[in-house]
């Protein structure tokens, strides 16, 4: 899988956090990989590892988002936008393998694909404050 496809799979798995309790996420992760036939062993390991790293940092990431997104807090954001922002903030702040510009660009592309019409502008505006 390409890095973009891997990021999209991580987004889809991370999105499940919005609808499930954290204690239910191991089962959700198992169901995710059963549904995602495209995820090979190496890709599945990468997706799972990055998902776990992000989910461990969710309280910190949400706190950073609440600080930087003036006039918005994570409770008011759409679930899609919030998930994209969480992934991007993790990549910007904690993942040294992903350049900031790439993280922002990929987040905007995810917002165009999965978000509403104005999502990509919102995501870009919030992430610009992290750059």
Structural key phrases:
N-utilizing Substance Protein B Homolog, Chain A, 131 residues, mainly alpha, globular, 7 helices
Textual characterization of the structure:
It is a single chain. The protein is mainly alpha-helical and 131 residues long. It has one domain: NusB-like (N-utilizing Substance Protein B Homolog, Chain A). The protein is 70% helix and 0% strand. The protein has 7 helices and no strands. The protein has helices at 3-15, 25-35, 41-56, 58-68, 79-94, 100-114, 119-128. α5 packs parallel to α7 and α6 runs antiparallel to α7. The radius of gyration is 14 Å and the shape is globular. It starts with a helix and ends with a helix.
**Residue windows where pLDDT falls under 50 for at least 5 positions:** none
Rg over C-alpha atoms, rounded to the nearest angstrom: 14 Å
Counting helices, strands and paired strands, the structural category is mainly alpha
Q: How much helical structure, as a percent, in the residues?
A: over 70%
Largest sheet: none
Give the arrangement of secondary structure elements.
Blueprint: H1 3-15, H2 25-35, H3 41-56, H4 58-68, H5 79-94, H6 100-114, H7 119-128
Question: What would you say about this model in short?
Answer:
The protein contains seven helices and no strands. It has one domain (3-128): NusB-like (N-utilizing Substance Protein B Homolog, Chain A).
